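User: I'm preparing a small set of examples for a lab meeting where we compare how different chains pack in three dimensions. I only have the primary sequence for this one, and I'd like the structure in token form so I can line it up with the others. Please keep the answer compact; I'll paste it straight into my notes.
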Amino acid sequence: MSGSEDGALEERLKAALWFSIGKIVDEETLKLGVNATPQFIGALTEMLWAQIGMSESPLHRIHSLTTASENVSEDLQSFAKHAGREVISAEDVLLLARRNEGLETILRKCLDQQLADRQKAAKRK
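Assistant: Understood. Below is the structure token output for the 125-residue chain.
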């Protein structure tokens, strides 16, 4: 494949990852009765993409994507279990993002904003 074909494939893979994560987040937020912003989905996508890393072949990238998805889910489940919970929380996601300072900052700001919005809404009631 040429460089432009590799770039196009990479963009399609990243778009597919974004879409898949968006579907999973939508399903879970409906179950939990909460909302997730597009920024959260984007940050989660970027975090997973960074976990995958850049491989040489597109097939290796797909395999890496599957493996990274499994690793992320296992890590999140382990963090929740260690804390004595059955449900993954935002703190688990922040713990997973701790090695990516920029992503952790974005996620923390998003979480802080959501908490502030909930507090404002609670005061209105």
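A couple of notes for your slides: Residues 40 and 107 are 7 Å apart (CA to CA). The chain has a mean pLDDT of 82.

User: Perfect, thanks.
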